[in-house]
Design a protein that fits this description.
heterotrimer; A mainly alpha (about 290); B alpha/beta (about 260); C mainly alpha (about 280); A: about 290 residues; mainly alpha; 12 helices; globular; B: about 260 residues; alpha/beta; Rossmann fold; four-stranded antiparallel β-sheet; 10 helices; about 35% helix
Chain lengths: ~290, ~260, ~280
């Protein structure tokens, strides 16, 4: 029986290894053939042209723009929302709002995409865009910003709740107002947990496909404006997926490799942040024991 | 399992126990007679609970725990390769400090051990359940709610349920690790009465912090200090004329 | 100084309002816009005359079935190994932990690429429900491992000791005492993982092929799912059908979420009784 359990536990490792090997074996030779600089920093993507060219730099830039902007929107609103739920909201509303936000975290991303396509894009086109184009980085960022809100709210609220309330009482006892105690003492104490939530949100934003693909437009062009049809790394893979063959396929897989590397970096920074958070109370404990 | 028929005295020779580099028990030798109550007393951390747990091999579950010595129950070497640890534990029951009923019905709690050892017939199980609950003198309190969840009982009832649960495995020895330390005086009294009754058929070893309890219930008492067995003898002798100065200091409340 | 923080406080309250409004807007829009477009033909018709999501409905159920048959036993068994056999510490646990965390962070489109490479190309299955289902299983595995681990860790050691002390073997202790004691947590997490399978679409573009007009004949046939249908309809000029399908998917997902908390509570009640 132990063997069965052990095999199952090894399965995750095997799965990860297989995924990594398959992607790298299929993707890296193509990147090497095209030339790393040519592939990553080339600005022309035309895999189906007679003289094909595979530069994903526009997609990298678009991914970074969309991720940054959506995280600014999502974290900005989400963090303040969690602080409001933490201290500035009638107690009996907190639990129902939380449950609702948890439920909303489960909404499929394709529904956010549909909402973006039928509401955000026309709105941006008619009221905000100077060029009359609704598709693009701004629309995608708004959609993703809303989509990652629930994650940020619940992670931030959890880390705020885990700050000992004695800090808060201590600040009040020193004459701080409720607001000052919250913003100067509690929020900074929850910093590492909130930061971990931000990294999590970045991961979701950079990896999201469906919500983006429906509002980003899809032209593989260098982003020069927030209101212009572009492609991200994820949408490049999904859009190319319907015309897969030969080198075009390898180019998509190579895009996947780049995306994979991005997420690995995020994962590592996430676990480092978490580690730092977990280490802190330990140190305190040690001090307590050694008295 | 037939091996365990016969007398049920317990012996330990040259017992040493280590947690990693730390030696928790130092060269302990003891002979515990059958069908009596033997109490282990001593200050916290003296190793008495650790020693108790050797006899149903619960220390096997503790990582980094190493045991030396010769341990026999009814003459059988309990660490022998031939000895089935599960059968050993069936024959050597244990009651813990904190009542730990399983989150299931009262009936299923009691029937757990018989089912483990292959009894599935309902009539047989019914009989064992009733008998065990009666022996633990809790039958009258629970007979109408056998199908109710055991976690709905009071702390004292839960502990007696746990005793009944052990009895359902028909053990020859019952190890009790501070069984009343989490209970009120009335529940404690019930459990002490129960032990008087049980020792007619079963060897009982109890770890206790409460010296009055030891004088009330134990035929023999062993005093432990810092991993050593300091003194062992008839309870009356230990408490009225201790031979060792450290025992005297402990029982008169001067340290511990 | 005080004034600045009072302003921040109002900013928080405004942010809370914005969050709630925007999230509710998404749901309300989908419902209001979509309900009126639901029709019998769309829900149950065959695809020959007009678009129907019946094939997607069958496809979704197949994907849920395949993914859970694979991921649930493996996930629970790995968590059992990590918690019950290694005490949730040591180097091996660390490695598995890193592996599951990394798997959890991989974007779904990358899973899609992997599924494409291995099932469609390497195994030569072409687009298939089975390939999609297995890929989804790997995707939800980390979630199941993680939450089962947490559930197992929440079981008090006293129960395990009690069981061992009665002569029960390790395996019996795990299956009769430990797992039943934390069943509510495990079941809840499985239902939530199923919610992820139902919601997922990026993986499926590359693995099941988005064949929207046919009920898959076997598990080796290509097909579609509800979520994938929404993308298909939206990007192929059927906005009404997309909205209507979104209602169905939303109801499905919300139902799963409510079911998760309901079943969780029911099991908890039956294991732990009304007491405490």
């Amino acid at each position: 029986m132990r063997g069965v359990f052990l095999f199952s536990a090894v399965f995750s490792i095997l799965a990860l290894a297989t995924i990594t090997v398959f992607l790298f074996v299929s993707g890296v030779p193509f990147i090497a053939k095209t030339g790393f600089a040519e592939f990553v920093f080339g600005s022309n993507w035309a895999p189906l042209a007679d003289n094909p060219s595979y530069g994903i730099f526009p997609m990298i830039v678009a991914s970074l723009y969309v991720t940054a902007l959506s995280v600014i929107i999502g974290v900005g609103i989400g963090l303040f929302t969690s602080i409001a739920l933490y201290k500035f909201c009638p107690k009996r509303l907190v639990s129902p709002i939380r449950q609702m936000i948890n439920l909303l975290a489960g909404i499929p991303s394709v529904i956010f995409g549909l909402f973006g396509m039928t509401v955000i894009v026309p709105f941006v086109r008619d009221y905000i865009s100077p060029t009359g184009v609704g598709y693009g980085i701004l629309s995608a960022s708004i959609v993703l910003g809303i989509m990652i809100l629930p994650t940020i709210v619940s992670v931030s609220l959890d880390s705020l709740n885990s700050v000992p309330s004695s800090y808060y009482e201590g600040a009040l006892a020193l004459g701080a107002t409720k607001e000052i105690a919250t913003f100067k003492v509690m929020v900074p104490s929850a910093k590492s947990g909130i930061l971990a939530g931000v990294v999590l949100a970045i991961g979701r934003a950079i990896g999201e496909t469906m919500a983006v693909i429906m509002v980003i437009g899809g032209s593989p062009e260098m982003p020069e404006s927030l209101f212009q049809s572009v492609r991200t790394l994820t949408s490049n893979i999904a859009m190319g997926a319907l015309e897969l063959s030969g080198d075009a396929l390898s180019a998509l897989i190579s895009t996947g490799v780049v995306l994979f590397v991005f997420t690995l970096i995020l994962n590592v920074s996430f676990s480092l942040l978490k580690k730092e958070k977990a280490d802190k109370p330990k140190k305190k404990e040690k001090r307590g024991v050694s008295k | 399992m037939n091996e365990f028929i016969g007398n049920m005295d317990i012996t330990a020779k040259n017992c040493n126990l280590f947690y990693g580099d730390f030696q928790a028990l130092k060269n302990i030798n003891i002979e515990i007679p059958e069908k009596q109550v033997t109490a282990f007393i001593g200050p916290s951390g003296c190793g008495k609970s650790t020693f108790l747990k050797i006899f149903n091999r619960m220390n096997d579950l503790v990582e980094g725990c190493r045991i030396e010595g010769d341990f026999r129950i009814g003459g059988i070497d309990i660490f022998d390769k031939e000895t089935d640890v599960n059968l050993l534990r069936k024959n050597v029951g244990m009651v813990f400090q904190k009542p730990n009923p399983f989150p299931m019905s009262i009936y299923d709690n009691i029937a757990f051990a018989p089912r483990t050892f292959g009894i599935t017939k309902k009539s047989e199980l019914d009989e064992i359940v009733e008998k065990s609950l009666r022996r633990a003198s809790i039958w009258d309190e629970v007979k109408d709610r056998l199908r109710k969840n055991a976690l709905g009982m009071s702390g004292g009832q839960q502990q007696r349920l746990c005793i009944a649960r052990s009895l359902a495995a028909s053990p020859k020895v019952l190890l009790m690790d501070e069984p009343t330390s989490a209970l009120d005086p009335i529940s404690t009294g019930k459990i002490e009465e129960l032990m008087e009754d049980l020792k007619k058929d079963i060897t009982i070893v109890i770890v206790t912090h409460n010296m009055q309890q030891a004088t009330r219930i134990a035929d023999r008492t062993a005093f432990f200090l810092l991993g050593e067995l300091i003194e062992y003898g008839n309870t009356d002798d230990i408490f009225t004329s201790p031979k060792d100065e450290r025992t005297e200091r402990y029982i008169t409340g001067r340290f511990g | 100084m005080k004034k600045l923080y009072s302003i921040l406080k109002y900013a928080c309250i405004i942010a809370l309002t914005v969050s709630l409004i925007s999230l509710i807007a998404v749901v309300a829009y989908v419902l209001i816009n979509g309900v009126s477009k639901l029709s019998f033909d769309l829900l149950f018709g065959d695809y020959s005359a007009s678009p129907s999501i019946f094939p997607a409905f069958i496809g979704t159920l197949q994907l849920v079935g395949i993914a859970s048959i694979i991921a649930v036993p493996i996930g629970i068994a790995s968590a059992i190994f990590l918690v019950e056999y290694t005490g949730n510490k040591g180097r091996f646990v660390k490695i598995v932990q890193v592996a599951t965390e990394t798997l959890a962070g991989i974007p779904s489109i990358v899973y899609g690429l992997f599924g494409y490479l291995i099932f469609v190309v390497a195994f030569g299955w072409g687009y298939s429900m089975l390939g999609g289902g297995i890929t989804l299983a790997i995707m939800i595995l980390p979630t199941i491992v993680r939450s089962t681990q947490e559930s197992l860790l929440s079981v008090q050691d006293g129960l395990r000791e009690g069981s061992y002390a009665l002569g029960a073997s390790k395996v019996r202790t795990i299956f009769k005492i430990v797992l039943p004691s934390c069943a509510s947590g495990i079941v809840t997490s499985i239902i939530l993982a199923i919610g992820r399978v139902v919601s997922e679409s990026a993986v499926l573009i590359l693995t099941v092929g988005m064949v929207v007009n046919k009920v898959p004949e076997t598990l080796m046939s290509p097909g579609t799912s509800l979520a994938l249908d929404i993308y298909y309809f939206a990007s192929h000029g059927y906005p009404n059908e997309a909205s209507a399908t979104a209602v169905v998917l939303l109801v499905f997902v919300v139902f799963l979420n409510l079911l998760a908390s309901f079943i969780g509570k029911m099991i908890k009640k039956s294991t732990y009784g009304d007491a405490k």
